[in-house]
């Protein structure tokens, strides 16, 4: 292991020519019996290279392993103590056995030939630097079953809290907006230049980002419509856009005339908002549960126990296909298939309702892609339901 010391000292090439801070740390390392095996000193600048003999460190084909991580941590800690050059490769050094007559050749001093164990070496370095030692995360469960039950309980708690939070947001969102002091008539105005007060105490109006304010408000309205189970029609989204634009114009025009986008552009905006809302994977309201997250070891234990449970289940079904366990599993499967069928029928009914409503209002049939955006399902699913409805004669 090579550490490149970039702190300049004085000319001479002797250990006494090293920088004072480097000499102090080296003295501490020697006193702790973890000093370098070789010390090479630049005769012109007083910089140095230090070499420690360590146990072999191996890596896989990708160049990574736990041993490589340990080597990197040891090099980093030791380098910080000696204020090393972090860009040095830590693999190459000047030749300690060079016998030429170059005036710039490093002067090498052999100290010992002890081989350092990296784990012990790193602990000693951290004690010397006053750093915390690495400690494994304590296991909080007595058995794998307790761990699985705790993980299930946390997941159920998080799901219940998330559902409750979304219900509260959808029901009280509009009423709570009037208590938010940053909102103006329910609109959060985004500013290019925020309003200020001049030296005479007079209010100086700011410059509002009208288009961005209107679009953000329309997007928030679309998310709230979806959370409350209402249809994402163009009219309420366009109304929200126009309302927010007028609020921004009234409070932050800064001498600009109103420049509301034309109706065609507002209609395109509404469809874009609807697409963002229906394809969004992150909820508007993000609930923060107070429950703790599972550690890496716990997730691995869950995965391992899950695999073993699957093997045991397959073994039971194979050895006793007509037993109580197999019958109970078949019953659960039948109930799950029944629920899936009911859910599919409910989605098909929604597809039929949207298709019929649009046909009655405009005289034009919606495509599978449009229905998918409206209901938040994929185009493939919407087209499958449309084909099934055509087969039974409910639509043309």
Quick structural overview:
By secondary structure, the chain is α+β, with helices and mostly antiparallel strands. Helix content is 54%, strand content 7%. The chain has eleven helices and ten strands.
Question: What is the element layout, followed by pairings?
Answer:
Elements lengths: L1 E4 L14 H12 L6 E4 L6 E4 L1 E2 L11 H17 L24 E4 L4 E2 L1 H12 L14 H34 L13 E3 L2 E2 L5 E2 L2 E2 L1 H18 L6 H19 L10 H17 L16 H24 L4 H39 L5 H8 L3 H13 L5
Parallel strand pairs: 4-6
Antiparallel strand pairs: 1-3, 2-3, 2-5, 7-10, 8-9
Helix pairs in contact: 2-3, 5-6, 5-7, 6-7, 7-10, 9-11, 10-11
How many domains? 3
Based on DSSP secondary structure assignment, what is the total number of beta strands? 10
Sheet with most strands: 4 strands, antiparallel
SSE pattern, N- to C-terminal: EHEEEHEEHHEEEEHHHHHHH
Low-pLDDT parts are: 285-291
Beta-strand content: 5-15%
Q: Order of strands across the biggest sheet?
A: 1-3-2-5
Note the overall shape: flat
């Amino acid at each position: 292991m090579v550490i490149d010391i970039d702190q300049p000292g004085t000319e001479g090439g002797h250990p006494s020519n090293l920088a004072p801070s480097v000499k102090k740390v080296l003295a501490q390392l020697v006193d702790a019996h973890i000093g370098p095996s070789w010390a090479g000193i630049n005769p012109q600048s007083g910089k140095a290279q230090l070499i420690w003999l360590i146990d072999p460190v191996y890596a896989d084909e990708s160049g990574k392993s736990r041993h490589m991580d340990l080597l990197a941590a040891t090099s980093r800690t030791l380098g910080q103590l000696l204020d090393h050059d972090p860009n040095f490769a830590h693999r190459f050094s000047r030749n300690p056995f060079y016998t030429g007559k170059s005036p710039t050749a490093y002067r090498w001093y052999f100290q010992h030939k002890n081989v350092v164990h990296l784990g012990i070496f790193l602990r000693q370095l951290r004690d010397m630097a006053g750093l915390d030692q690495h400690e494994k995360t304590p296991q909080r469960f007595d058995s794998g079953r307790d761990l699985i039950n705790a993980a299930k309980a946390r997941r159920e708690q998080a799901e219940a809290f998330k559902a409750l939070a979304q219900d509260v947001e959808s029901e009280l969102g509009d009423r709570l907006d009037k208590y938010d002091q940053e909102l103006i008539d329910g609109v959060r105005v985004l500013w290019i230049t925020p309003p200020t007060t001049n030296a005479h105490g007079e209010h100086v109006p700011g410059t509002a980002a009208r288009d961005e304010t209107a679009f953000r408000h329309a997007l928030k309205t679309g998310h709230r419509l979806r959370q409350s189970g209402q249809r994402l029609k163009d009219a309420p989204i366009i109304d929200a856009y126009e309302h927010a634009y007028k609020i921004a114009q009234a409070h932050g025009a800064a001498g600009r005339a109103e420049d509301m986008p034309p109706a065609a552009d507002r209609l395109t905006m509404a469809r874009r908002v609807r697409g963002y809302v229906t394809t969004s994977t992150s909820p508007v309201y993000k609930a923060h549960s107070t429950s703790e997250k599972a550690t890496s070891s716990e997730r691995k234990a869950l995965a391992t126990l899950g695999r073993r449970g699957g093997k045991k289940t397959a073994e039971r079904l194979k050895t006793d296909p007509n037993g109580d366990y197999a019958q109970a599993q078949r019953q659960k499967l039948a109930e799950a298939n029944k629920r899936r069928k009911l859910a599919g029928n409910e989605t098909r009914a929604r597809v039929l309702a949207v298709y019929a409503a649009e046909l009655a209002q405009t005289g034009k049939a919606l495509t599978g892609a449009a229905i998918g955006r409206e209901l938040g399902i994929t185009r493939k699913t919407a087209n499958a339901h449309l084909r099934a409805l055509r087969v039974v004669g409910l639509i043309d």
